[in-house]
Amino acid sequence: MKYVSLTDTVFVFVHGAWHSSGQWAATQRALAGLGAASVAVDMPGHGFDAPLPTGYLLPGQPGLMTEKSQLATLTMDDCAEAVLSVLHQVRHHRTVVLVAHSAGGGPASLAAERAPELVDRIVYLSAFVPGGRPRFFDYLGSAENATALGQNLNLGDPEALGAVRINPLSSDPAYLDELRETHYHDTPLDRFDRWRSALTPDLPLAIPTTPVTLTAARWGRIPRTFLRCAEDRALAPAAQDLMITEADWAFPGNPFTVHTLPGSHSPFAARPGELAAALAS
Known about the structure:
The protein has 281 residues and is an alpha/beta fold. The protein contains 11 helices and 8 strands. The strands form 2 sheets. The chain has a 6-stranded parallel β-sheet, sandwiched between helices. Helix 1 (25-33) packs across helix 11 (272-280) and helix 2 packs across helix 3.
């Protein structure tokens, strides 16, 4: 595999739903070995400082199905501004590569639209691309995504909660099996238990539901790559292909470069070295 020069490249990583900057650590270590700097963003409502439902860590998890999320007032703008803040900090590097995973594609795209001069390339790792349809839910609910798993993971009424809530600390074996099969089916079981314990339960509802509008003069001028996950069970390969196709139709002057990775929705957990090599190539 041929690598580009990485000595003055910085990768800015944007995580997906329920994750945090920590999900990228192994990939960042591998990239450092290849000469690249990187920084990972914690979007508002995620990471170690994320506010949790009051009963989440208590026996029996009281109120988990009904308690309104403390993240309900967070907006897509809030999340995009968190990405923009990091992009401004690293612009002194010659090459800035913005990498988004899954639901992080919305805030990353909006940040790139607002400040395309801060991004030299944007990479979507099985991530939402609002080039053809403006909301992540538009693709999650598409016919192309009908084979995706995870429909039984969401708790309560997202509209009432103000969040898409899951329960990574569930004691139900069937629930945990679906969580693993959806996001981490190729991650060893002992490592899956560590990964799920690091997840937070609430995704602000604004992230998958807020429309993101892109323009050819701004987002559309940035070179872009899509890294497909061939065995993805959270965002079906057919839905990934739909996003690529519709974005290229909408912005034909600058089409995606597309590469396919083996495995699940979460290569940063299952094969971070391979992910780093793909990013460096």
